[in-house]
Specification:
CATH class of chain A: Alpha Beta
Shape of chain B: globular
CATH architecture of chain A: Alpha-Beta Barrel
Strand content of chain B: 15-25%
Oligomer: heterodimer
Radius of gyration of chain A: 15 Å
Largest interface: A-B, 39 and 50 residues
Helix content of chain B: 25-40%
CATH superfamily of the largest domain in chain B: Aconitase, domain 3
Number of helices of chain A: 8
Number of domains of chain A: 1
Number of strands of chain B: 18
Number of strands of chain A: 7
Largest sheet of chain A: 7 strands, mixed
CATH architecture of the largest domain in chain B: 2-Layer Sandwich
Strand order of the largest sheet of chain A: 4-3-2-1-5-6-7
Distance between the termini of chain B: 51 Å
CATH topology of chain A: Aconitase, domain 4
Helix content of chain A: 25-40%
CATH class of the largest domain in chain B: Alpha Beta
Largest sheet of chain B: 5 strands, parallel
């Protein structure tokens, strides 16, 4: 999968509560979740996401609650990939299960600035920063996780598996 | 090379003789817990295309997050869960008022040493206090567990944390774990399992160990395991007749890191806004005006927590400008606290008692903060906006520190209590 777009930048420890506040947890419709994405972190997020589709952040992105809405709301708001120094473990799994590509790269997370134009090749494990003409390598996801993302998330991948075993 | 507790439990769950840290295993889950988010799980489950859950006896659902329903949306979510458990024959369903999931599961005898438990809540690590590998997962993968009984898990590396020393007066489990998080950072144990050892942990009650395993998630831990001892077994055997198979680490188990803490001189600790690792000794924040004091939650809402606070509040009044909210962790805890007279003490002190549940901890209802307000609370998170306005401040502390601060109307040191 190759993803290209401009970058929205955030810092360290962006937690699930600011990505998707607890007061909205009863929402089960993903489009409605998207309306509240980043509500307590960045009031301009919805303006930015109109042109910029890749989030780059510091360490421990998605720390806190297990709420899957944090990954779902970003995906439905239009985020196409997240690059960070590190991710909190439940958010990491949730993003994969939603089919949202997620990349750990300390080097990329340090070097990429707001607005940079980047191209991510998830299979090759390569990020190109076209603005700065820099490249960063990362460990590609294991094949079975890549397969979940390619299927568009865990449910689609399970459906495929179940129908092929019938 | 020997194995850690996490490696042994995951090997058994994956049907393998041995696994190593870093292996990815397809594990059979012993127990799957969900709370109000079972509404989302069941919605996703229906999209998979299987008609029945894999094993209704291994699914436990506890309504605790927005109870009784605080909005029409929450009421509808609860209703959809009741319908789903009816259709699927899920008998272990605890409706509004029974308590917080992480208190209810141990109380009702669902957690036993050596199990693999997953839950759609990050603080599922709480059951680690019983020698269990338990961890939080998302709603979609829980739907997968409901359909197949299985989940992929990466076998984590394990940190060994040794805590020694007799705790000083009015210093408790919450102070110990906040201190540890302050030292290692909010991602200090990210993806890792922790095994806790040492005389302080040995001396801890089951309730105190639950505080440690619960709050350890705030350092990113995937599992936070206290090896079982006679206290664990005593607690479990009172609540279930099922066989208990404790799992211990080998002498020569491989740990990624070993940490040693001496807590004999530890001061009461406070996690300051807006991250749980922003931990300071109480002396550095003493005197800060507070508007609300919250005692409760899955971290510190058990009988021993209420007992400490009641001891401090007995015959006294909470400061006039402070709203003190008490949330017993479960109905069982609540009834015990009534019997022991603690609830009477809280009421006479001017506190508000709310029903068992997650209540103010997640800022959904029962004590939301306004802009500019400051709360001290025995809950587990102090993120921006966690308990209401993004302009409010949340300070995490032990039940003793919460109680004494409520009396003084400002953050105070519980060691002043004679």
């Amino acid at each position: 999968m190759v993803i290209r777009g401009e970058v929205i930048r955030y810092g360290d420890d962006v937690n699930t509560d600011v990505i998707f506040p607890g007061r909205y947890l009863a929402i089960t419709d993903p489009e409605e979740m998207a309306e509240h994405a980043m509500e307590d972190l960045d009031p301009d997020f919805h303006e930015k996401i109109k042109r910029r589709r890749i989030i780059v952040a510091g360490k421990n992105f998605g720390c806190g609650s297990s709420r899957e809405q944090a990954a779902t709301c970003l995906k439905y708001a239009g985020v196409e990939a997240i690059v960070a120094k590190s991710f909190a473990r439940i958010f990491y799994r949730n993003a994969i299960n939603q089919g949202l590509p997620i990349i750990e790269s300390e080097e990329a997370a340090e070097d990429i600035d707001e607005g940079d134009d980047v191209e991510i090749d998830t299979k090759k494990g390569l990020i190109k920063n076209l603005t700065k003409d820099h490249e960063y390598l990362f460990h590609p996801l294991p094949p079975f996780i890549q397969e979940i993302i390619d299927a568009g998330g865990l449910i689609n991948s399970l459906r495929k598996r179940i129908s092929s075993s019938r | 090379m020997g194995e850690t507790i996490a490696e042994k439990i995951l090997a058994r769950a994956a049907g393998k003789k041995k696994v190593d840290a870093g292996d990815i295993v397809d594990a059979s889950v012993d127990l799957a817990m969900s709370h109000d988010n079972a509404a989302l799980v069941s919605k996703v489950f229906k999209e998979i295309g299987v008609s029945r859950v894999w094993d209704p006896s291994r699914i436990v659902i506890v309504l605790d997050h927005r109870v009784p329903a605080n909005t029409i949306k929450a009421a509808e979510a609860h209703k959809s869960i009741r319908e789903f458990v009816g259709e699927q024959g899920i008998k272990h369903f605890y409706d509004v008022g029974v308590g917080i999931c992480h208190q209810v599961l141990p109380e009702k005898g669902f957690v036993r040493p050596g199990m693999l438990v997953v839950g759609t809540d990050s603080h599922t690590t709480t059951y680690g206090a019983f020698g269990v590998f338990s961890t939080g997962i998302g709603a979609t993968e829980m739907a997968g567990v409901w359909a197949t009984g299985k989940l992929w898990l990466k076998v984590p590396e394990t940190f060994r944390m040794i805590v020694n020393g007799k705790l000083p007066y009015m210093v408790a489990a919450k102070d110990v774990i906040l201190h540890i998080i302050g030292e290692i950072g909010a991602d200090g144990a990210n993806y890792k399992a922790i095994e806790f050892y040492g005389e302080t942990i040995d001396d801890f009650s089951v309730a105190s160990r639950m505080t440690v395993s619960n709050q350890a998630m705030e350092a990113g831990a995937k599992a936070a395991i206290v090896p079982p001892d006679e206290k664990t077994i005593g607690y479990v055997k009172e609540r279930t007749s099922k066989e208990v198979k404790s799992v211990f680490a080998d002498e020569d188990a491989e740990y990624e890191k070993t940490f040693e803490f001496d807590v004999s001189d530890l001061e009461p600790q406070i996690a300051c806004p807006h991250t749980v690792d922003n931990v300071k000794p109480v002396g550095e924040v003493e005197g800060l005006h507070i508007d609300q004091a919250v005692l409760g939650s899955c971290t510190n809402g058990r009988v021993e927590d209420l007992a400490v606070a009641a001891g401090i509040l007995k015959g006294k009044k909470v400061a006039e400008h402070v709203r003190m909210i008490v949330v017993p962790a479960s109905r069982e805890v609540y009834m015990d606290a009534v019997k022991k007279g603690y609830i009477q003490v809280f009421l006479e002190a001017g506190a508000t008692i709310v029903n068992p549940g997650c209540g103010p901890c997640l800022g959904a209802h029962q004590g939301v903060l306004a802009a500019g307000e400051r709360a001290i609370t025995s809950t587990n998170r102090n993120f921006k906006g966690r308990m209401g306005s993004t302009e409010a401040e949340v300070y995490l502390a032990s039940p003793a520190t919460v109680a004494v601060s409520a009396l003084k109307g400002e953050i105070a040191d519980p060691r002043e209590v004679k």
